[in-house]
């Protein structure tokens, strides 16, 4: 045996003896059966699925009226919508499929999973669990690509007419429903499991963390966050930042040609240009979106004040408030915007943001 092998064997022997000599638990705990553990796992997955659906119901109950009220502002991003989210076995993560089958009788057939309150689907009486059989007498596709095919099918129908007919199955009985689509800003809204108090928009999507959902104490506060992110998308802030980044990158390239390695510094600096201005504009336009949806706006400054007070770390580098205006400046600006909106409402002036 080589010296290296002897040394390795000696080290492993010492580690093994050390582990064998470690202290052990002093009590004799009750045993667990594999069957009981599996049953508990299923219960926890049921709670998780029910919680996810409940949170998304809450988010869309708040978001849908805002997406609808923001149509005059989001302009080219407006799309016709009937206000439902379909799902089947393949749209769910594999770990919750078993409980979804038991709780919602879900299979490869698309069924209504989320109905957005106040939407055409809601007004037509659609409910969670309704099986989607046909759209304008054309069968709804089943299987792994069903959700993708559904949106393609729906888009083609709505390109021709805002009115459509759905054939559904509820508790084994078929019925036909007529829906009239309405315009909304075409931004998806989703949630993450992150405990960080955060929300962001990328131009097409809006994402809310679980931490933010807990921090927003009521639906008015949640509406404030969502309308702020809708405003980012509607005002093309992400596209502006990408354009600024590209401009800065050209300087990085020019510097590299001159023999200077900037490490992309100009691109990063340019992307951050006007960030606080964009955040101020999202505050301003977001309040108009709330007002257009008849959501109270008076407590908006207090929300951001509480955010800064209870989560001061979010104002640090990389935090949610890092790119936002200072809290005091923001508070005053929000108060001024609220006064501006109230004056317009009182005088009957068209409720739209003042543009340059």
Distinctive features:
alpha+beta, about 55% helix, 4-stranded antiparallel beta sheet, single chain, 3-stranded mixed beta sheet, about 350 residues
Q: Could you describe the 3D structure shown?
A:
This protein is an alpha+beta fold and 356 residues long. Helices cover 53% and strands 15% of the residues. It has helices at 3-20, 34-69, 71-74, 94-104, 120-123, 146-160, 210-215, 219-234, 237-257, 265-272, 275-292, 300-310, 327-347; strands at 78-81, 84-87, 111-115, 131-135, 138-139, 163-170, 173-180, 182-185, 188-192, 199-201, 205-209. The strands form four sheets. The protein has a four-stranded antiparallel beta sheet. A three-stranded mixed beta sheet has the order 9-11-10. A hairpin with a 2-residue loop joins β6 (163-170) and β7 (173-180). The N and C termini lie far apart (83 Å). Residues 243-255 and 262-274 have low confidence and may be disordered.
């Amino acid at each position: 045996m080589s010296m290296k092998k002897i040394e390795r064997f000696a080290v492993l022997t010492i580690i093994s003896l050390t582990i064998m000599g470690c202290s052990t638990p002093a009590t004799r705990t009750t045993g667990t059966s594999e069957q009981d553990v599996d049953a508990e796992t299923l219960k926890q997955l049921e709670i998780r699925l029910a919680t996810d659906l409940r949170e998304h119901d809450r988010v869309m109950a708040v978001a849908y009226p805002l997406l609808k009220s923001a149509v005059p502002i989001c302009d080219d991003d407006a799309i016709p919508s009937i206000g439902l989210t379909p799902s089947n076995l393949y749209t769910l993560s594999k770990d919750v499929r078993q409980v979804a089958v038991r709780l919602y009788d879900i299979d490869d057939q698309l069924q209504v999973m989320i109905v957005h309150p106040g939407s055409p689907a809601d007004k037509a009486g659609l409910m969670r669990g309704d099986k989607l059989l046909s759209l304008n007498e054309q069968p709804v596709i089943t299987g792994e690509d069903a959700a993708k095919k559904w949106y393609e099918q729906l888009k083609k129908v709505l390109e021709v007419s805002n009115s459509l007919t759905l054939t559904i199955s509820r508790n084994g009985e078929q019925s036909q429903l007529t829906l009239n689509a309405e315009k909304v800003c075409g931004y998806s809204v989703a949630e993450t499991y992150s405990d960080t108090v955060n929300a962001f928009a990328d131009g097409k999507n809006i994402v809310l963390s679980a931490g933010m959902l807990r921090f927003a104490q009521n639906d008015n506060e949640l509406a404030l966050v969502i309308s702020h992110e809708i405003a980012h998308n509607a005002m093309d802030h992400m596209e502006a930042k990408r354009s600024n980044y590209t401009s800065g990158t050209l300087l990085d390239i020019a510097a590299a040609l001159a023999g200077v390695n900037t490490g992309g510094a100009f691109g990063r600096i340019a992307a951050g240009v006007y960030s606080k201005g964009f955040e101020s504009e999202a505050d301003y336009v977001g309040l108009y979106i709330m007002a257009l949806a008849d959501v109270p706006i008076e407590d908006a400054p207090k929300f951001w004040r509480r955010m800064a007070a209870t989560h001061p770390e979010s104002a640090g580098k990389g935090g949610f408030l890092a790119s936002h205006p200072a809290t005091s400046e923001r508070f005053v600006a929000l108060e001024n915007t609220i006064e501006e909106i109230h004056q317009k409402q009182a005088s009957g002036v068209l409720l739209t943001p003042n543009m340059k």
